[in-house]
Design brief:
The complex is a heterotetramer, with two copies of chain A and two copies of chain B. Chain A is α+β, with helices and mostly antiparallel strands. Chain A contains six helices and three strands, in the order H-E-E-E-H-H-H-H-H. Classes of the chains: A alpha+beta, B alpha/beta. The structure holds pyridoxal-5'-phosphate (2 copies).
């Protein structure tokens, strides 16, 4: 884990984000904001009938951390099932970033993750499959 | 200038990573000179006691120290009497006190409170709250494109329904210095009172509450080189005497019955409970310090820094400085770098030892108006110098380079 | 014992007239150990900044220091979560916050708030105010002849109309320690909440807000060997979340619109404006200090001093000690000397270096009940010792002799 | 002026007050209290048709300073006219006590004086002779 906040992984994703834009085929999407710093991440998922994420896209604006983290997240979750996502913990998300974030910056790093979790729970709500 | 800088112990020390500290966040909270830090230790080590009526040896000394501080503060702002100076926990508390103790019982439907979009949340949300509680209306003086009050439209905002104009002496984001003389004159003409949020203006320029005459002035000790945890509300005696207390408890009471009580005289009526004793005393020391440097000198140094910073930053491409030109503002430069997000900017400047603040600076309305959610703010105090600006400018370039946006 | 005493710089110095200081006014405000004074200087000299979201180097450090203090305070009082600990300016502010932010919107005609005549004005006048504002009724639990709550009459004071029982953990005049377990149980049975004024009780004995479970606990830093200008409100998360803010301004806001705003999460919702940053941190240091000594040890020392003082003073003719016997109280001895008025007593004790307090100690109702307007109060802390009691007793004799009343 | 708060004058007046008690022939009286310390001084005056104070009595309870000061005050004002009393300043009252009082204790030392001033002003009010 690097102490260097803006390391290569973050910078690469910030510069050339993975799946940034609008996903036409999205089956669900959710936007999270951090009103304090103005970061915004909209996460869009295409989930198939087996509850597997076929495609993940994000859109938004904000600091390098929030945007790069959203990009890294999209790359990470494609192909996973919603069951797997339910198990996916904030600490794992932070590990994926490969940098050590202060409490304040963790909010940036977890913005996309928060959107993802909201989608998981709202999906459960609507289908009523949650235990 | 070196002598001022050397009065502040924190500025003499390198940061944990060895870089020298370039502190450009004084608008958020100022650093403390040695004399203020020592005043606190001296109090706790040699004569600390609860204030009020201690008849033991330093019980008297502490009362004299607190009241001495009150007198010096009163003198600094031109208050007619020391009891017009109420010690609070800060600007926020001072303004809430007026909103509730003055506004809640005096405002009613049809009445108007006039604010504007550059106000800090501390001088906005209490008025939102009390107008909602009382059915009064909150109105806004429009701003000009460069972030000043649009005085041409002042008349249409004021009427006999206006009960109070709450306005900041200086914007904590744009640096805009508001024309309190024009505002008091216009308010007086329609019978409205004027509250000035002096959190930013009091530390930067001499203020005299009798000229132009304001009704309330709120400010914080921690921005005036004093300790955290203490602030001031100045109120004209006439109004303070008519108002009911805000907080209730010890010291603000004259007589207590089973279900009712009568209030003590000023300033005790508004100082319920144990005062921030040591902090009030050390704020008095901070006032002495500021008077020693002199507001003329403070203004001279700050305006020179401001002019230089504004010039240097305006030469950077794709960087937008918000607010009016330097003649209309104090030593604050807030900017948007189109290439680097404010949070990244602050984070990357930090590596160069530069302390700036990124965010909405408790002025969300203003940021909506500016069309950005966050800005980066550099603010200056007399302990800063040109070399700080050099480091800031280099830091901005460094941030762009690091994010591969140069 | 000497080691505790030597932790407090002020106790090592003679007074201006050369007499050693005998400080018996800790119930009013405690003295500060070296570590607390140093924590303040260290903060201002090496990492001071405004709390919250400073991304610069010590901006993070100060946030961690403040939140670290919050966590240690939460642990000390047994709070489930740190965000249940709200930093305020003191007990008075903490109780006013509950009275207004909880009481004002929840109480209405027919509702009752239960207090009693031993309460400090800080836990009485806010309830007088909010019951008057809302039309609710203020009721009093009667006291027994020796100054305890009359528990036999508790049932007749409580009913389904009771919304809150506000009670002090320990009387600041009588020293009476109230049975919070019995009160919470009885309150719970009728669905009422319990607020404990812990200004006196928290510094003297371990407290656990989960057992017996209280809903609110208010206390002051300056009585807990911490700096002036900071206090705490503990509130159960459930209630704090339902409550609207008290003060409005920066930090307690989530989003601000032109006329309305939404509130931030706990604890920010109740911490508008700049925190007493350095004071909150130093209060954390005070908590560490107290934990280091240990509440068992504090209790042992204080109860021994109390027993001795009570015994020695009771041997003086024409001197009446108020309040219950030592098993029911903490280290406070308030008395009336039939020969010497309290003000003269305090004044004459002062010549012997003894710091006591004379007056109504912000408990006018209690003094009416005692049938005197003022009393003389000696209060003890672990830095006191037997020799302090000797000087006190000699001083009382000296006062009588001077006024030719012996 | 003595720094010794309880000097002979104060102690003598505290021990053997001048005119302490109730004045049957009083033409006016007023009570002042200091709620903070419980001092109480009732001042009773017998004023003749020339507005001259024939007799001055006090009653009350409180600390040595407040009671001795009231006694010293009664002794001082007998024989004076109300016009003279109007000129009588707080600083003169404090001088009479011959001790230096802190701000807090001045309230005690001036309690009787405050009662006296109230009587002067209320007399003016009722007779309407005030300018
Ligand atoms: C029992 C009690 N409650 C409340 C208070 C008020 O505390 P503070 O003055 O620190 O707000 C005190 C102390 O003065 C007290 O003893
Ligand atoms: C213009 C203005 N008003 C009010 C405040 C609030 O001051 P405090 O946080 O000290 O209460 C600030 C500072 O944050 C400010 O800049």
């Amino acid at each position: 884990m690097s102490d260097e906040l803006y390391d290569e992984l973050i910078l690469d994703h910030y510069e050339s984000p993975y799946h940034r834009g609008q996903l036409e085929a999205a089956s669900c999407s959710h936007t999270e904001r951090n009103p304090l710093c103005g970061d915004r991440v909209e996460l869009q998922l295409q989930v198939d009938s087996e509850r597997r994420i076929q495609q993940a896209y994000f859109d938004g604006e904000g600091c390098a951390i929030s945007q790069a983290a959203a990009s890294i997240l999209c790359e990470h979750i494609e192909g996973k099932t919603m069951e797997e996502i339910e198990e996916f913990a904030a600490s794992e998300m932070l590990d994926l970033l490969q940098v050590r974030l202060t409490a304040t910056r963790q909010r940036c790093g977890l913005l996309g993750f928060k959107a993802l979790k909201t989608l998981v729970y709202s999906e459960d709500d609507s289908t009523g499959t949650s235990p | 200038m070196e002598s001022i800088r050397s009065d502040f112990p924190i500025l003499g020390q390198p940061l944990a990573d060895g870089t020298p500290l370039v502190y450009l966040d004084s608008a958020s909270s100022a650093q403390k000179p040695r004399v203020v830090i020592d005043a606190l230790s001296e109090c706790y080590e040699t004569y600390y006691a609860n204030a009020h009526r201690g008849v033991y040896q330093f019980g008297v000394k502490i009362d004299e120290a607190v009241e001495g501080a009150r007198e010096r503060i009163a003198r600094m702002i031109g208050a007619e009497r020391p009891e017009e100076v109420i010690f609070t926990s800060g600007t926020t508390m001072s303004i809430n006190l007026v909103a509730q103790a003055w506004g809640r019982s005096r405002l009613s439907e049809g009445d108007e409170v006039l604010v504007n979009e550059m106000e800090h949340h501390a001088n906005l949300v209490p008025w939102q709250q009390v107008t909602r509680q009382t059915g009064a209306t909150l109105r806004h003086i429009p701003l000009t494109g460069d972030g000043r009050l649009d005085l041409e439209r002042l008349d249409e905002c004021l009427s006999s329904r206006t009960r109070l104009v709450a306005v900041t002496g200086m914007s904590n984001v744009l640096g805009t210095i508001n024309p309190i003389d024009r505002l008091t004159e216009a308010a007086r003409a329609v019978g409205a009172l004027v509250l000035v949020d002096g959190a930013q203006s009091v530390p930067h320029a001499a203020v005299d509450v009798s000229n132009p005459q304001v009704d309330f002035l709120a400010f914080s000790g921690h921005k005036l080189y004093g300790p955290s945890g203490v602030g001031v509300l100045y109120g004209r005696r006439e109004w303070l005497e008519q108002m009911d207390p805000f907080l209730c408890g010890g010291n603000m009471i004259s007589e207590v019955g089973m279900t009712e009580s009568t209030w003590a005289e000023l300033p005790a009526k508004f100082e319920a409970g144990t005062l921030p004793v040591a902090q009030a005393i050390a704020l008095g020391t901070a006032v002495d310090y500021v008077n020693g440097v002199g507001f003329d000198e403070i203004g001279r140094i700050e305006q020179a820094l401001l002019a230089e910073a504004q010039q240097r930053l305006s030469e950077i491409p794709d960087l937008l400085i918000h607010g009016p030109s330097v003649e209309h503002k104090g030593a604050i430069v807030s900017f948007s770098d189109e290439r680097v997000h404010p949070h990244d900017m602050a984070e990357l400047l930090k590596r160069k030892g530069v302390a700036v603040r990124a965010g909405h600076h408790c002025t969300m309305l203003l940021h909506s108006l500016l069309g950005v959610v966050a800005t980066t703010r550099a603010s200056f105090a007399p302990y800063n110098d040109s070399s700080d600006i050099d480091v800031l400018v280099d830091g901005i370039q460094y941030a762009r380079k690091t994010l591969r946006r140069d």
